[in-house]
Amino acid sequence: MLGNEAFARGAYEGGVEVAAGYPGTPSTEILEFLSRYREVHSRWCPNEKVAFEVAAGAAIGGKRALATMKHVGLNVASDALMTLAYTGVNAGFVAIVADDPGMHSSQNEQDTRNYAFFAKVPCLEPANPAEAREFVRLAFTISEMFDTPVLVRSTTRVSHSRGVVEEGERESVPTRRYEKRAEKFVMIPAFARERRKVLEERLKALEQWVEETPLNRIELRDRKMGIITGGVLYEYLREVAPEVSVLKLGVSFPLPRRKIREFASEVAELLVLEELDPVWEREIKAMGIPVKGREVFPGIGEITPDVLIGCLFPEKKRDFADLSHLLIPRPPTLCAGCPHRGVFKVLHDLKAVVCGDIGCYTLSTLPPLAALDTRP
Ligand code: SF4
Predict the structure, then answer these.
(1) Closest approach atom of ligand 1 to CA 363
(2) Which of 85, 105, 143, 225 has the maximum number of C-beta atoms within 10 A of its C-beta?
(3) How many angstroms separate the alpha carbon of residue 346 from the centre of ligand 1?
(4) Residues with Cβ < 8 Å from 114, sequence gap 6 or more?
(5) Residue pair 14/137 in contact by the 8 Å Cβ criterion
(6) Nearest alpha carbon, ligand 1 atom 1
């Protein structure tokens, strides 16, 4: 199953009734797959903030709800996220946000885990399609257990790789009763001050839970080196260095501090392998634990198995020939019959300054059209 299909399957099995999203690679197929389930009311929205708020409204009203978007979409929806973190949700609310390390189809390389730290909401990070299904399903339970929105971070390689996924039955989740409670759901300053305290109390409870959850697990092998990692990098690491000890983080935030200390005490050298920002590295260093991250692994671009081998075993010889120089470059281009081709051709010929938008319009940037000048 494709990772994004597995995300949809997990949401379906988790009893989601309302799903809203805004398309953007690598997240788009989640909602497309989910729309095939008749039990789920799925819809595209004009932007990510609307999608987030449609889903949040459904959750507050008592139905499990999902929002989907790519990483830059969470910037648009962040206003709603920050307030929903205060109000809590009633029924389960999950937002799946797909990052794009290497910027295969994005304008930047931002790391969604920063938003989890910023909003103080839990963030789960599956490593493969099977976990994508399992983690999303579980995310609804966590959301209701702690009355919080939950982020699920994907990356291009989790969303767009295929793996074996075992399907389960759809949970029958009764609608939660909606109660008019302005002190919980209307964030005027007097109420927000109280909810601010609730947010911190919830975080303490989450920090307890995160130490116990099997989503974070220690795999002790050779004690010479221990690596803390998560997401698809866990899969790569197991492939290229099966002998190293690993602390696999299935929860990106909050961090299991006790478990990290325990793991650090078991290994001679501690590394942290993460894509993209040194989010965990900063936290672990702030705990006073000596750890190497950026000194060993790159902070820019995708960390592929090849890159990982180069970082961990620079002396290791590649056992396959690099034929990439033989490939004919195929930059993305407007479809052959695209009606925008003519428009961009005229704009190009007029030497007009063209300020563009996201999506296909950017495909007019390169020659021969060379039309677009700016695109925020
Ligand atoms: S707008 Fe995009 S998808 Fe539609 S025809 Fe043009 S290039 Fe193709």
Answers:
(1) 7
(2) 143
(3) 17
(4) 277, 279
(5) yes
(6) 360
Instruction: From 28, 333, 338, give the residue whose CB has the most ligand 1 atoms within 8 Å, as the site to mutate.
Output: 338
Q: Do domains 3-212 and 217-312 have the same CATH topology?
A: yes
**Is the domain covering 3-212 a CATH 3.40.50.1820 domain?**
no
Q: Report the helix count and the strand count for the chain, using DSSP H and E.
A: 14, 13
Quote the percentage of the chain above a pLDDT of 70.
99
Q: Is the peptide bond before 189 cis (omega within 30 degrees of 0)?
A: no
pLDDT of 319 reads 67
Q: 335 CA distance to ligand 1 centroid (A)?
A: 5
Nearest to 42 by CA among 6, 76, 17: 17
Q: How high is the pLDDT of residue 35?
A: 97
Do 49 and 74 form a contact (C-beta atoms < 8 A)? no
Q: What is the pLDDT of residues 228-260, one digit of tens each?
A: 999 999 999 999 999 999 999 999 999 999 999
- pLDDT on residue 59: 98
pLDDT at 318 over 80: no
Give me ligand 1 centre to Cα 27, in Å: 19
The pLDDT of residue 317: 64
Q: For the segment 64-112, what is each residue's pLDDT rounded down to a tens digit?
A: 999 999 999 999 999 999 999 999 999 999 999 999 999 998 999 999 9
Q: Report which ligand 1 atom has the smallest distance to the Cα of 334.
A: 7
Delimit the domains of the chain by residue range: 3-212, 217-312, 340-374
Distance linking the first and last C-alpha atoms of the chain: 35
Task: Identify the architecture of domain 217-312 in CATH.
Answer: 3-Layer(aba) Sandwich (3.40)
Closest atom, ligand 1, to C-alpha of 360: 2
